[in-house]
C-alpha cells in the first residue's frame, strides 16, 4: 500500500512525473523486438473486431504513419467480416488481410499476434489478461482497451505481464482516453502546481440510459449467448461500474496520485431486471477512501428516461475543479475567482491522440509508454467497487487483490458452460448484498 506524501513532496513528485500519466517519454533507448524489420511499414493485428476494435483500427490507420493491417482475429466470423468490410471500404490498400490471415475462434489471437509489430487488443475485457500476456510474450508493441481485467486474478496477471513489458521496453497504451485529452492534461498541470491545494473530496459520475441488448436467438449454446451479450456477464464485462465507469474512477485516482485503500457502497437492479440483462446491477454508488483520509464519491447507473451525467468534480484545500469528457474544465477558488477555464474549441480527439502518440514512438523506435500500472489500478478500484456493492461489505484493497476468485470458465469452447447458468425461466442468479461471497 502506498504511503501518503506531504504536500510539497507530492508537488515535486508530480511535477517530475505529471506527463508520465498521460504517456510521456520513459526512455529514448531504441525499443526491443517489434518494428525491426528494416521496412518503414508498421504491421498491425486487430484482436477483437467489434465496434470498439474497428474504431481502434480506424484510428491507428488514420495516423500519419505507414501502417498496414495484416491480421484480424475474433471469436465470431460475422464480426470479423463486418469489421473487414468497414475498414477495407475506408482504407483500401492499407488493409492487407487475406483469408489466410483472418482467424476465428477462441484461439484466434494466438495466430494473429505473431504476424504484427503492434497489436490492438479490443475484445471483451475478460479476455484482456490472457491476450496481453501473450502479446508481451511475443514482444509486441500494444494498444489495449480498458478495462484490463474483470477480477483479482486477472489484475495480477496483467501486472505481472506489465513488468515483463517494461523489461522488454514494449510500449503499452491503454484506452483510458481522458489521459490523452487536452482539458484533463492541462488541468492536471495546474493541480500538480498546487492551484487548488490537496484534493480532499470529489464526485465522479457515469449516469446514462445504458447500452445495447442482444436477445437470445435459436440454437445458441449458452457460451455463444453470453459471448454475444457480453455486457451483462461479469466474466466478460465486469459490470458497467468496471467496463464504463472506470473512466471516471481513473480520474479520481489520477488526481489523487493514489488508489483507494478501501471501498464501500450500495447497488441493485432497479430498472433492468429481466433475463436479457444477465447478472449485472443497473446502479452502483460507492465511496473511495484514500490513505490520507480523502473520500471520493462515485455513482453510475443505467436507467432509461433519466437526466444523464458523465463528469467529475473535486474539492481541494484551496479551490475546486469541474471536468468532463466534452472538453470542459473550470477551476475556481472558494471566493469564486476563476483560476482556469479551458477553451473547448479545437481540441484534438483523444481517441486519435492515443494512436498518434503510440505510433509516433513506434515509428522512431522509442520507448515512451507504460500505461498499464495506472490502468490496472483504476480497473481494480472499479472491481473493488463491484465487490463492495454486491456484498454490502467494506472491501480493503490488499485483501481483495490477494483473492483467488476467478470468474473465467474452466475451458473456452462453444459447447462449454460458463460458471453462471440460467434457471428454468432463463433468469440468472444475481448477487444479494449481505449474502454474496465476492472474495
TrEMBL record:
InterPro entries reported in the protein's UniProt record: Gfo/Idh/MocA-like_OxRdtase_N, Gfo/Idh/MocA_oxidrdct_glycsds, GFO_IDH_MocA-like_dom, NAD(P)-bd_dom_sf, TAT_signal, TAT_signal_bac_arc
Boundaries of every Gfo/Idh/MocA-like oxidoreductase N-terminal domain copy: 42-168
Pfam (any one): GFO_IDH_MocA_C3
A molecular function (GO) term: nucleotide binding
Domain of life per record: Bacteria
Annotated ranges, domain GFO/IDH/MocA-like oxidoreductase: 185-321
Protein name, entry field: Dehydrogenase
Amino acid at each position: 500500500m502506498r504511503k501518503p506524501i506531504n504536500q510539497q513532496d507530492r508537488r515535486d513528485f508530480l511535477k517530475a512525473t505529471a506527463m508520465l500519466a498521460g504517456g510521456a517519454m520513459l526512455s529514448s533507448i531504441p525499443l526491443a523486438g517489434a518494428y525491426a524489420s528494416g521496412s518503414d511499414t508498421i504491421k498491425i493485428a486487430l484482436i477483437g473486431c467489434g465496434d470498439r476494435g474497428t474504431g481502434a483500427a480506424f484510428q491507428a490507420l488514420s495516423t500519419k504513419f505507414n501502417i498496414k493491417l495484416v491480421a484480424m482475429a475474433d471469436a465470431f466470423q460475422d464480426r470479423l467480416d463486418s469489421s473487414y468490410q468497414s475498414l477495407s471500404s475506408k482504407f483500401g490498400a492499407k488493409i492487407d488481410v487475406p483469408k489466410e490471415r483472418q482467424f476465428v475462434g477462441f484461439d484466434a489471437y494466438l495466430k494473429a499476434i505473431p504476424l504484427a509489430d503492434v497489436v490492438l487488443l479490443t475484445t471483451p475485457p475478460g479476455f484482456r489478461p490472457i491476450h496481453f500476456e501473450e502479446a508481451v510474450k511475443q514482444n509486441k508493441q500494444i494498444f489495449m482497451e480498458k478495462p484490463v481485467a474483470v477480477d483479482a486474478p486477472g489484475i495480477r496477471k496483467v501486472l505481472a505481464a506489465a513488468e515483463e513489458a517494461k523489461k522488454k521496453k514494449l510500449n503499452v497504451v491503454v484506452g483510458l482516453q481522458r489521459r490523452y485529452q487536452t482539458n484533463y492534461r492541462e488541468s492536471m498541470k495546474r493541480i500538480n502546481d498546487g492551484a487548488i491545494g490537496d484534493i480532499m473530496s470529489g464526485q465522479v459520475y457515469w449516469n446514462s440510459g445504458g447500452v445495447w441488448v442482444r436477445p437470445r436467438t435459436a440454437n445458441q449454446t449458452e457460451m455463444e449467448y453470453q459471448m454475444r451479450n457480453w455486457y451483462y456477464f461479469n466474466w466478460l464485462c465486469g459490470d458497467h461500474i468496471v467496463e464504463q465507469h472506470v473512466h471516471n474512477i481513473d480520474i479520481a485516482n489520477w488526481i489523487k496520485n493514489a488508489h483507494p485503500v478501501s471501498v464501500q457502497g450500495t447497488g441493485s437492479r432497479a430498472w433492468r431486471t429481466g433475463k436479457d440483462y444477465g447478472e449485472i446491477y443497473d446502479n452502483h454508488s460507492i465511496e473511495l477512501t484514500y490513505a490520507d483520509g480523502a473520500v471520493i464519491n462515485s455513482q453510475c447507473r443505467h436507467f432509461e428516461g433519466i437526466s444523464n451525467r458523465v463528469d467529475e468534480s473535486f474539492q481541494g484545500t484551496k479551490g475546486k475543479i469541474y471536468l468532463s469528457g466534452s472538453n470542459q474544465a473550470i477551476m475556481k477558488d472558494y471566493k469564486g475567482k476563476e483560476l482556469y477555464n479551458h477553451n473547448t474549441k479545437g481540441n484534438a480527439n483523444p481517441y486519435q491522440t492515443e494512436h498518434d502518440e503510440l505510433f509516433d514512438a513506434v515509428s522512431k523506435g522509442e520507448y515512451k509508454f507504460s500505461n498499464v500500472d495506472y490502468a490496472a489500478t483504476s480497473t481494480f478500484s472499479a472491481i473493488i467497487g463491484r465487490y463492495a456493492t454486491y456484498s454490502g461489505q467494506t472491501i480493503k484493497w490488499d485483501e481483495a487483490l490477494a483473492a483467488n476468485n476467478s470468474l473465467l470458465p474452466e475451458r473456452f469452447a462453444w459447447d462449454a458452460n460458463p460458471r453462471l447458468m440460467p434457471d428454468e425461466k432463463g433468469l440468472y442468479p444475481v448477487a444479494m448484498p449481505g449474502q454474496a461471497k465476492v472474495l
